[in-house]
Amino acid sequence: MKQKRRDRTPKTYTRLTRPLVREVPGDRTSPFRTATWDEALDAAADGFARTRAAHGPDAFAMLSCSRATNEMNFVAQKFTRVVMGTNNVDSCNRTCHAPSVAGLSAAFGSGGGTSSYEEVEHTDLILMWGSNARFAHPIFFQHVLRGIRNGARMYAVDPRRTSTAEWAESWLGLNVGTDIPLAHAVAREIIAADLHNKAFVERATTGFEEFKALVEPWTLSLAEKVTGVPAAAIRQLAHAYATAERAQLCWTLGITEHHNGTDNVRALINLSLLTGHVGRYGAGVQPLRGQNNVQGGGDMGAIPNRLPGFQDLLDDGLRLKFEKAWETVIPPRYGMTLTDMFEAMEEGSLHAVYCVGENPAQSEADSEQAIRRLSTLDHLVVQDIFLTKTAELADVVLPATASWAESEGTTTNSERRVQRVRAALTPPGEAREDIDIICEVAGRLGHDWKYPDAETVWNELRSLSPDHFGMTYDRLAEHQGLQWPCPDTDRLPSSYLHGRLWESDPARRGRLAPFGLVRHDPPVDLTDESYPIQLTTGRRLDSYNTGVQSSGFASPLRRGEYVELCPEDAERYGVVVGEEVRVSSRRGTVTAPVWVDPGLRPGLAFMTMHFPDEVDTNALTIEANCPIAGTAEFKASAIRIEKLTDIEKLTVRG
Predict the structure, then answer these.
(1) How far apart are CA 455 and CA 242, in angstroms?
(2) What are phi and psi for residue 144, nearest 5 degrees?
């Protein structure tokens, strides 16, 4: 495996201001040259047309953007379905919270978190599971702190004693990949202590007896052996959660980025069903989204199995509504997920990709494999604000606006709140609005779409999505955002979902919530003598995702990328802070300096994805995907640490 040389200088990305095409069309070894908009748009559209003519509509895929507006995502999925004739549309939602959507949908029929942020301030217990929200979700964490100041008890479940855990009454440091055993042990203790909400379980759920039998073997002592969490701590958490009048259960990527991420989500939802901590003010489950519009991208239909408004495209009646509005025929089958797309590149059945605002070359697990697969495409068009690693692989690069500062529209956050976004800056050079660019490509492919402004797009969405019908731009401005579902223009929506489950009338109660019968499945990439350390990955407060937008700006908190070890492991390997070491997994090797973190336990290391141009952490991670949601196991990769020779140190220092 090739060792990657570390460059200590963070890469800064220059803003794209003019379209780029290859000097030699079709030859990605040739350099880019600037082009006119007409030339670049013609090249983009011609490549898509050739692909469809030669290989059919399913040889095309769209990667939409979780940082762009709802309106952009709506137009992107419409382009995919109407112009190209396929449902192959997805986004980085697949990389992070697709298991949350799948798990919530399976339990409640809806893919959004059940509570508002404000409710965290007025709850009695906050359970942060697999979430370092203080670093990864700092705005939400301000609500958590208000809740704690108002008297809420907080428990933190995480392999690391994170900055978030420092605020907790109790930290349960579990072994990576043992969330289901811990959740089952908590559930068993609640049932054994007769603390479950019998009335709610009987009224609102199905499958309780099967669930009870499933968790019965997970005694406190067995759970301690498997998870590493002391039995007394598990018991304390179980009793505190069950006896709280109101409790909020929040999770992040520590739950979802596993090969069984959807099962992890179901295991946590089971706890809320068991105790009745859902469907009431201050009581619910909350997946914390890491980007400004991950929720909204899915809500707008920029996913392969749902039409806008999270409407199932396999429902003939729902699909017909869209077909009439768009004067088209939508294929009655689910499209490819992001995971499926990369596998189809490998197989040679996916030939063209339109990538808007995403950087999968650096955000996907096993990044070297991802780059190789992207390089096999016949036609790659990237629409972005920077020349990312993915854009460097493209045939055509289209300069777009920064949605959060240069565009009009809306976004939807983790609490399902749709909020207005207003342009504050004029885009540089020849950069254009995302929607305008997509419509220009559509026009060259025979679809003359006229959207004079973002509100026109939004009103089209409102006409098709009952959950959004009541959200006019004027009402969004008046109320500083509204939460879906909001079907009426004259009433305000509830801050929480699934209050119906508490109705005494079965007809009003609707679909009951099933317990998820999920079983423990250890990480795929197990440690052994050759790879004795478990690497888990995550975020830091000072940086953002793959660093494209944040690495060019200084921060007093930033120290670049390190491999973080506990004091005991640092001593065992004879390494000190700042010393460069070789970090290897079964997929690749990088060099990185050491940082010592007392919040880690022996056998556990931590790295981030923020500086892939310096240390490509995803060269180490494994593409072991959740079979339901398609999310990779970023949180569990077996690695080894090796000291460098004197010659290697000189090479690294360059």
Answers:
(1) 45
(2) -60, -45
510-531 CB burial, b ≥16 within 10 A, e <16: eeebbbbebebebbbbebeeeb
Of the candidates 329, 376, 382, 370, the residue with the CA atom closest to the CA atom of residue 349 = 376
User: Does the pTM exceed 0.85?
Assistant: yes
Cis peptide before 360 (omega within 30 of 0): no
Stated as kind and residue range, the H or E segment containing 34 is strand 32-34
- What the block records as the tokens of 367 is 């990044």
The model's pLDDT over 252-311, given as tens digits with 9 standing for 90+, comes to: 999 999 999 999 999 999 999 999 999 999 999 999 987 888 898 999 999 999 999 999
Cβ burial of 281 (10 Å; 0-12, 13-18, 19+) is middle
DSSP secondary structure string, 108-162?
Answer: HS--S-SS-HHHHTT-SEEEEES--HHHH-HHHHHHHHHHHHTT-EEEEE-SS--
DSSP β-ladder status, 3-4 and 170-172: unpaired
Q: Cβ distance 260 to 136 under 8 Å? A: no
Q: Are 35 and 329 in contact (CB under 8 A)?
A: no
- Of 524, 447, 415, whose CA–CA distance to 78 is shortest? 447
Cα Rg for the chain, rounded, in angstroms? 24
Residue 271, token pair as written in the block:
């706890």
Q: Which residue has the tokens 């509509």?
A: 57
